[in-house]
Fold these 2 entries.
Entry 1:
Amino acid sequence: MKLKVIIYLLFLTLYSCSSQSINKSDLTFKGNLWYLDNNLYSGEVYQIVRKEKKILGKLRKGVKEDYWVEFGSLIWRQGAYVKGNKDGSWNGFYVDSTKAFNGAYENGLKVDLWNGWNKEGVQIYRGQYIEGKKNGIWVYKYDNGQVSDSGQYKNDFMSGQWKYWFENGSLMKEGSYNSNGQEILKWLYYDIDGMLKNEKEFINKN
């Protein structure tokens, strides 16, 4: 048994030594492909993050494939690529590894239910995507968990009735949008104590 483990570890060592690995900063991205010295790159890619070497994933002929980790200034994310497109479940995390978002991709486009959280773990948004565009009911929240605004999207445009609230939970304003995301009809505006303070009529520009 010990001999098998030693052989396996030796294999991993030899494999890692023979596999090409390069810093992402040494690659060039153009035409949705990754190049090294004007040649399509195949191999492992890493990035130096806060003075540590982090393996990001692998490229095949300049295209991201399989599992990847990607680092931004505030959030890092992980998920899979298929032929250079994000596909399947993706999750995002803050620097301290607190979860920031989760959702799914299909052929590089956001689909299905997406959720987001702040650094304290409070949910701050929730809604659906269809082929990369917001559709259906979306809910946004303040950092204290109170709903800030909610309504429907159609193909990425606010549509129909929307409501907005103050951070204390009092209704701020309410009204409707047309299919182009423009305010229409009568909008009502309230003060922080919930008292109606103004009304405004919008012309339907459709």
Note: Helices lie at 2-18.
Entry 2:
Amino acid sequence: MSNSSNGSAVWRNLFSGKSILDGSTEAVLSKVPAFADLSARDLRRVAAIVHKREYKAGEPVFYQGDPGLGMFIIREGEVSIRISEREGEEKELAVLTDGDFFGELSLLDESPRSATAFCKTDCSVIGFFRTDLMELIKENPDLGMKIVMKFAEILATRLRKTDKELSKVQSQLDRLMSRSAKGKTSSREDRDGKDKSFISKPVQET
């Protein structure tokens, strides 16, 4: 299993939001980058359409491969983000906690879930689904598109980080391949030299 703290750095919220009323849905939403710049009035509009859900420790929020319906924001608790590998084992990518969010890609893309979200503790979460976003865009286009653009910005930032990490991994692989190739060449040259030495050695008659 991978180091959760490193994975969490990719998933964790990058900005702190303004406080409306401690513990309120608006206060939780204000800590999410996509909603952080909204006015108190707009936050109340979003808070009025989101869904509050409770999960017990050990329960999944969704499974890898499930239809992507929307995003979740953790009001309280810990959620593990995991992927299933070919060998059937699960790899933990991140552990998210209060104020963190996940699943936001499904607001813009209808692809199946790319990972499983599993509650490590009892969790209280807020759900914001694609149907809610579409209805918001219909009723208040300016507010809806403002949220869409912020999510697009968040996803672009994450993609840039992923590209940088992939570039580092590729560079490391290239160096390893280069060292491996040099090692094989050197070994082959040493072996060929020994063979030639054996062939050129005169045979003494007895």
Note: The chain has a mean pLDDT of 81.
